[in-house]
Specification:
The protein has four helices and no strands. It has 63 residues and is mainly alpha-helical. It is globular, with a radius of gyration of 11 Å.
């Protein structure tokens, strides 16, 4: 059963994101800026990417 991301804490949302099959396989994962701001906040998201050594790219409304 999949859990609704809207019900997840910021830590669980990040775990859900980085635990996705695409992330585990080293593929590009895309999330809207709106969702990042809503669930974890942009600063916390960027901090986690840096901590994990993951590069990022922002195009229009996507990270």
């Amino acid at each position: 059963m999949r859990q609704d991301p809207a019900l997840l804490s910021a830590d669980h949302w990040m775990s859900h994101l980085f635990g996705s099959k695409a992330a585990r396989d080293g593929l590009v994962i895309r999330r809207s800026v709106r969702d990042i701001d809503r669930y974890v906040g942009r600063e916390a998201f960027i901090r986690e990417l840096k901590r994990a050594g993951i590069g990022r790219s922002k195009t229009l409304a996507k990270w």
